[in-house]
Amino acid sequence: MAIYLTVFQTGVAPGGRAPFPDSTALVGAPRANSSVLMDALYQPGVLFKCEIKNQECQEVVLDKKGNTQTDNRNSDFSFYDKKDGMWLGVSLDVLQNPARNDQNPARNEIVTCGHLWKNQFYKQHYLANGACYVINGDLDPNHVTKLVPFVEKSKQAIIPPGIYKYAFGQVGTSATFSEDGKYLLLGAPGYYDWTGTVVSYALDPSYPLDRQLKNNNVRPAVPSPPTDHNVSPESYIGYSVTSGKFYDDKLDYVAVGAPRDGGFHGRVYIYEAVQGGEKKLIVTQKKEGTQLGEYFGASVLGVNLNGDEYTDLLVGAPLYSSDSGVDEGKVYVFLSNGMGLQEFTELYGKNRFNSRFGTALANLGDLNQDDFNDIAIGAPYEDGSGVVYIYHGSRSGMNVQYVQRIAAVEINSGLSGFGIHISRGFDIDSNQYPDVLVGAYASSNAVLFRTHPVIQLAAKITFSPKQINTNVTNCNYQGQDVPCVNVTACLWYAGKHSPSNLDFQHTIVLEPTNQHNLIQPRGFFLHKGKSLTVIQQKSKLDIGMDFCIMDVLYIRPEIKDVITPIQLLYSYSLVAPDSSLNQFNGTAPVIDPMSPSNITSSVTFQTGCGTDDKCLSDLRVTAVFLGHTDTSYLIIGEKNTLSIAIEIVNVGEPAYLSELLIYLPSELPSINQDICSEYNDQQFQRRNASLICDLGNPLLKNIKVKIQIKLDLTKIPTDKKELEIGLEAITASNEINPKDNIVKIPLHFKALADISITGTPTHEQIPYDGKTEGRISLPIAHTYFVMNHGPSPVQVIDILLYIPTQYQGQDGTVEFITFTSLEADSGKPMTIPAKCNDTYIQFKPIEVDIKKNRDGISMDDELVARGENKTFFGLDYGIDSSELSDDTTVPLRFKRSNDKKTSRKRKDIVINCETAKCMAIQCSASPFSDTRKFAKITVSVLVNLSILNDVLEPWYQIEFITGGEVQIRDDGSGVVARHHHPDKTMVRTAIVSSALRESEEIAQWIIFVSIGVGILLLLIILILLIKFGFFKREQKEKMEKMKSKGDMKEYEPVEGESTESEALN
């Protein structure tokens, strides 16, 4: 039996809180049999109401009838329901309306669903439409409304082509009320052949919900899937659903999971809630998983993690597998900055095999009262029985390390499936801390976890005098004067809604390292004549007040090591009250895991200088940046690190307890610390220094200490113009020249960024048969890429795209463009979220059944001329072949086009913003902090050639040109633009006609001039030949004789033989 649950309280008076006995848990048991309907139904599922005080559960009556038929079977909304096996309780949520006044008291509304509720459409045809029940907070069976939004007979299927629309919608697979209480959202992953959707009911929070629904004042909105985002078949949109103020602190958006979308990578779509009708779901942003089959989007949770004004998003991927594992699961965390959701981190729990970490997500509220929401993540199969992890929110987003791991085996060995569902946090015992219920479906249990108050601790140890002077023996031990130091160890606690006083156990251990190594400590405490190295004491502390233990630390006289400080370990813990051993005590606190349970402090030795026992030291500090001069500017983002070399020298007497204090701005943290340390304890926080460097005790004369600190430059905001680093050398000795102990080094910054926009068409050329008539539309898609090449990050880049849409013809301006889609966010990991103002654009998405020819020409019933079953060139344009003849039956528009083609010459035509009217689309993208990432915007249009052919002269080629430009938004960030890359671009697509180019007529004077020039050249050649005697016989014979001699020279004599000329000689 599966367990699904939530927590709420009944009987809340205006302005007051319900006492613990009124706390009630709701538990869904989808495979349970009803005790009300008995044998009338088989395993319909049951919603149980469980009293926390006595742990007794009883069935909530939602439906008193078995399988029934509506009165009017002829109505399009009539049905014959089958409730057997409907899985009632598979989803469950509670809307908690706070009290407004005495006339409008606090009110709860509950919704629970059975996604397998079936409508008997025909005798043997059962359609899993799904059903939900809404009941008021009093659980009054007379105030129940049954919601069956998918029973409309005419919409069960679309035949042809054989698409199941409502038939197997399975509405109620997920269910939630929106964060502002204005919508009831029901996931229906089976809608439209399991593509899925989210059914939404617009609500009035000031009016009881059951009355709104019963009176049919609210009609469900069933948005169609976002086909312009390449939604995959069987995406399961609606498998999970949540809501939140992701982009606007006054407007709720819906986040819906589609774990099989995106080629089985899984997707989450974020969109503004639809109020009515079947409008297309308009996606504001989408996120996509990174691994095939990880089921990204199986669970979603909107929760404000960092305390800003926007809701953040968690997405579960429970089937994620590591390279060497299987189904470990993980959770993606996306933080919102108002412009979009950016991935912050990924959570893995303990990354155990088959855990399915991320199956359940829950907002627990503020568990530790630090003003940030905390979350729970379920891994129902970890360790075989299930585990729940607790994570804390924080100002930076959230702590990536879990603070608590609750394993089922540590609670009860019989639990199984623990963590399949987790309730939101709710305080049931009035201790001001939220409690939580966890379902364990395989063992049919729900486990309640109650939260203790949380306290924070602070401790310190002080010594008087601050150093041990071995020459001062002001204490006596066994008749011998010995040095001694007064030790004071103090503890303080605070916590919201915590007891005013608590009992603590204190323990002080002297030199714990020496005791561990069996080395005798150099000091001891004296109690009742006995020397002790460990002090233990119990005490009662008042909240906000210091409690201190004071004792004397005796120094053994025979010690030789007077250089190494003596260390003390102070540990402390709560003393548990006796009552907490047997039962839960809601007022008994626990210590915040972030508070240390112990501190360590040391006392050093002092050695006198000179006869006056005063050390007159003279510390000097110098520092330089490595690879950078103090006067030049640092370009933000150009370097990630900067090193500073520091040198300290003492030119005076020994400097005891010499330290260097380094003051770093919060925007300029250190990466390494060299010999320095960070101290969180206020006692060691010397004047709020970032780093404290121990220079030696003592630092002797003329000894140099060199320190090199590497600084992190990646945290500097772009509006920062100057930062200052401070260095200060201090000592317990008397400094004779303190002016040269302090050095201040300024750093000057500039923010420079080189942004660019480039574009590319889907097709550079589109062939077109110029002989074709009819309303022909060509799809053209231009994609623009916007990048920041750095070096500095840019928060927001404004983008302006120009699309030619209207052409000025003889009869006026005509619009030849139809927008099909504007995709500004692909959801890929390397893309930056972008938003476009498309409210004034009317989109006409290309439907799935549009026909395309081999040239990519698109046509449907609204894009081609009217007609029936008329084809030519293998295409169905809906035009009668007789309409293409030259007789009088040709329509006027076609004849005019033919006349122009036969009587006028064809041209190459350019359509851009100079030759046509353009529409400017304003977009923006943010943030550009990674130079590898880019914003991608794709504009898809249909160019109506039939309109252009009417207004253009005959053409060979139409060059369709769009343009784009970018600029850095002037938001005070101080980023100055560079111009090494183009900030403007154009994208071209050529529509090329297949008609042959007509030969151009040549002017007669050109022909006559060409003939005359040819005759003149021929006469010149004849004169030259005559002048050189080419036609004389004597010259011809000489030339032949010379030729014959040349032929004889071609023969070479062979070795051992002689030529004819040699024999004659």
From TrEMBL:
Question: Which InterPro entries does this entry report, sorted A to Z?
Answer: FG-GAP, Int_alpha_beta-p, Integrin_alpha, Integrin_alpha_Ig-like_1, Integrin_alpha_Ig-like_2, Integrin_alpha_Ig-like_3, Integrin_alpha_N, Integrin_dom_sf
Annotated Integrin alpha third immunoglobulin-like domain ranges read 773-991
Segments traversing the membrane = 1005-1031
Q: Compositional bias (Basic and acidic residues) spans?
A: 1040-1052
Can you name one GO molecular function term for this protein?
integrin binding
Start and end residues of each stretch annotated as Disordered: 1040-1065
Question: At which residues are the FG-GAP repeats?
Answer: 157-210, 224-280, 282-343, 345-400, 404-466
What is one cellular component GO term in this UniProt entry? Answer: external side of plasma membrane
Entry membrane topology: Single-pass type I membrane protein
Q: Which residues form the Integrin alpha first immunoglubulin-like domain?
A: 452-607
Task: List the SMART domains hit by this protein, alphabetically.
Answer: Int_alpha
Annotated Gene3D superfamilies: Bicelle-embedded integrin alpha(iib) transmembrane segment, Integrin alpha, N-terminal, Integrin domains. Chain A, domain 2, ntegrin, alpha v. Chain A, domain 3, ntegrin, alpha v. Chain A, domain 4
Tell me where in or outside the cell this protein is found: Membrane
Which keywords accompany this UniProt record?
Cell adhesion, Glycoprotein, Integrin, Membrane, Receptor, Repeat, Signal, Transmembrane, Transmembrane helix
Answer whether the UniProt record assigns the keyword RNA-binding to this protein.
Answer: no
Q: Which GO terms describe its biological process?
A: animal organ development; cell adhesion mediated by integrin; cell-matrix adhesion; heterophilic cell-cell adhesion via plasma membrane cell adhesion molecules; integrin-mediated signaling pathway
Q: Does the keyword Cell cycle apply?
A: no
Q: Which residue numbers delimit the Integrin alpha second immunoglobulin-like domain?
A: 609-746
Compositional bias of type Acidic residues: which residue ranges?
1053-1065
Q: Which family does it belong to?
A: Belongs to the integrin alpha chain family.
Report what the protein is called: Integrin alpha-9
Protein species of origin: Araneus ventricosus (Orbweaver spider)
